[in-house]
């Protein structure tokens, strides 16, 4: 689910929503078997925790900061603590620069076919009960059924990741990456993107229709549960438990979605491979190249979604393979 939130945060396109979200932490509701599965997965994951790490190789210094792309009042304290890192960085990398983001938004406005299907509608390819569930969930987020029927499945997947209680524009106005990018620009630092902004957009638009449908079906469940999943996600983020957050999102989706669990696993594997692992493998070379000539007083700063840090193919493990020493720092 967190990968869906990431894409949604890039697009900043959506209907209206209202009120503030509440929601409850779902971890206490886990059964013993689920709790043990979650703990085993975390124990097997390298660098499972920590939102701020420093990688050093001789004088080369890289600060890696795990971000969240959705705004939260508690982020202000973290921005204050991390600002000195950004203000002294020789270069600050983000998943997308603000200029790239504006270009991407313009592409979606100028080319509606990126979001709208012209050859088929969703009611034609879904059974009636599933379509009714989807239409109701979308309507609670401000989309009437006639619009929902024509949206590409991957876009609806992104939209359903946002609970109806949340105002999209307000939520995306100040995620940690946006706030730290503002710090970098104000300090006159060099700001660069880790990749071309078309990379992720092309992945979803070019994904086979059946894979898009699998992602969509995995995202259809009670909107109240979406609010609880959001609350859980924020708690895990501020506890710096990004590996637990990823695995729990998979577990809760399998428990609640209108989709076969094996197909949910397959959808998660596809997204994990492309949205995390393959991108990390490309990014790490860019980061290591930029680190040449960096120093503790003029480090490279990398601000990316926290899910990119952990795992055997996470940025931390990939840098360790290249001879960097890793140290967790206060977040």
TrEMBL record:
InterPro entries the UniProt entry points to: TraB/PrgY/GumN_fam, YbaP-like
UniProt entry tagged with the keyword Signal: yes
Classification of source organism: Bacteria, Pseudomonadati, Pseudomonadota, Alphaproteobacteria, Rhodobacterales
Protein name, per record: TraB family protein
The UniProt record lists the keyword Signal: yes
Signal peptide residues on this chain, from the entry's feature table: 1-19
Organism, scientific name: Thalassococcus halodurans
Coiled coil: none
Keyword vocabulary terms for this entry: Signal
PANTHER family, alphabetized: CYTOPLASMIC PROTEIN (PTHR40590:SF1), CYTOPLASMIC PROTEIN-RELATED (PTHR40590)
One Pfam family, short name: TraB_PrgY_gumN
């Amino acid at each position: 689910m967190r990968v869906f939130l990431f894409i949604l945060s890039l697009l900043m396109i959506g209907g209206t929503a209202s009120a503030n979200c509440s929601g409850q932490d779902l971890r206490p509701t886990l059964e013993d078997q689920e709790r043990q599965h979650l703990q085993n997965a975390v124990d097997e994951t390298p660098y499972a925790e920590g939102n701020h790490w420093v990688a050093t190789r001789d004088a080369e210094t890289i600060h890696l900061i795990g971000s969240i792309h959705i705004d939260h009042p508690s982020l202000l304290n973290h921005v204050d603590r991390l600002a000195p890192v950004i203000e002294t960085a020789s270069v600050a990398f983000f998943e997308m620069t603000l200029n790239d983001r504006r270009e991407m938004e313009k592409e979606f406005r100028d080319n509606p076919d990126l979001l709208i299907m012209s050859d088929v509608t969703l009611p034609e390819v879904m059974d009636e009960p599933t379509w009714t569930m989807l239409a109701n969930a979308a309507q609670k987020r401000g989309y009437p059924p006639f619009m929902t029927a024509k949206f590409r499945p991957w876009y609806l997947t992104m939209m359903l990741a946002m609970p109806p209680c949340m105002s999209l524009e307000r939520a995306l106005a100040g995620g940690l990456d946006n706030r730290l990018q503002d710090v970098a620009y104000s300090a006159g630092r060099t700001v660069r993107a880790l990749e071309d902004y078309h990379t992720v957009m092309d992945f979803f638009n070019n994904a086979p229709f059946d894979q898009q449908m699998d992602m969509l079906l995995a995202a259809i469940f009670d909107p109240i549960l979406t609010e609880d999943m959001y609350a859980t996600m924020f708690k895990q983020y501020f506890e710096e438990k990004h590996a637990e957050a990823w695995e729990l999102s998979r577990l809760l989706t399998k428990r609640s979605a209108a989709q076969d669990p094996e197909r949910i696993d397959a959808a998660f594997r596809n997204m994990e491979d492309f949205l995390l692992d393959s991108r990390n493998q490309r990014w790490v070379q860019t980061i290591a190249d930029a680190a040449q000539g960096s120093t503790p007083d003029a480090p490279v700063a990398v601000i990316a979604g926290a899910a990119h840090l952990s795992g055997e193919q996470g940025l931390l493990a990939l840098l360790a393979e290249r001879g960097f020493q890793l140290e967790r720092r206060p977040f």
